[in-house]
């Protein structure tokens, strides 16, 4: 029993354990200090450089947007204030009808050209297939 009590009361072993225990907390404290310092540097950079620049850019852009919206509102008011007379409506409907007619003609021409191109390609592919068949048949005859 005396040997066991001497083992547990051995001061150098206990002091070593205590030293190891304290050193773990000091290491963790140093890491925490470094992390806090990094956060402080980043937050200082953000508050001194990035935020003022962002606010200046936002102020410039907001004034530009405000000016554009104001111009847009004025244009809308000008358009809505103009009276649309029956004569303007007739001219407008005639020009729209002419536009639709032109579009229909162009569509017809484009469709015709497309169909011709498709037919040309189909005939070329048929000729190519016939040529491949001829070459295959001559190749088989030579073998």
What are its keywords?
single chain; 143 residues; mainly alpha; 2 domains; coiled coil
Measured between the Cα atoms of the first and last residue, the distance is 104 Å
The total count of strands amounts to 0
Beta-strand content bin? under 5%
Spans of at least 5 consecutive residues whose pLDDT stays below 50 are none
Number of helices: 3
Shape: flat
What's the number of structural domains?
2
Helical percentage? over 70%
Structural class: mainly alpha
| Whole-number mean pLDDT | 79
Order of helices and strands: HHH
The rounded Rg comes to 44 Å
Q: Give the biggest sheet.
A: none
InterPro entries: Bloc1s5
Keywords: Coiled coil
Coiled coil: 111-142
Protein name: Biogenesis of lysosome-related organelles complex 1 subunit 5
Notes on the protein architecture:
With 143 residues, the protein is an all-alpha fold. It has helices spanning 2-8, 11-81, 86-142. It has 2 domains: 1-82; 86-143. The chain is built from 3 helices and no strands. The N and C termini lie far apart (104 Å). The relative contact order is 0.02. The mean pLDDT is 79.
How does the SSE layout of this entry go?
Layout: H1 2-8, H2 11-81, H3 86-142
Question: In summary, what is this structure?
Answer:
This protein has 143 residues and is mostly helical. The protein has three helices and no strands.
């Amino acid at each position: 029993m005396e040997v066991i009590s001497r083992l547990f009361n051995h001061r150098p072993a206990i002091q070593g354990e205590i030293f190891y225990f304290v050193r773990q907390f000091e290491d963790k404290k140093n890491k925490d200090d470094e992390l806090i310092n990094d956060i402080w540097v980043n937050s200082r950079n953000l508050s001194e450089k990035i935020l003022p620049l962002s606010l200046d850019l936002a102020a410039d852009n907001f004034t530009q947007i405000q000016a554009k919206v104001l111009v847009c509102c004025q244009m809308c008011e000008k358009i809505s204030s103009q009276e649309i007379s029956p004569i303007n409506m007739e001219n407008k409907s005639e020009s729209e009808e002419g536009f639709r007619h032109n579009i229909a003609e162009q569509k017809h021409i484009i469709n015709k050209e497309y169909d011709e191109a498709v037919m040309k390609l189909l005939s070329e592919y048929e000729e190519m297939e016939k040529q491949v068949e001829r070459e295959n048949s001559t190749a088989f005859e030579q073998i």
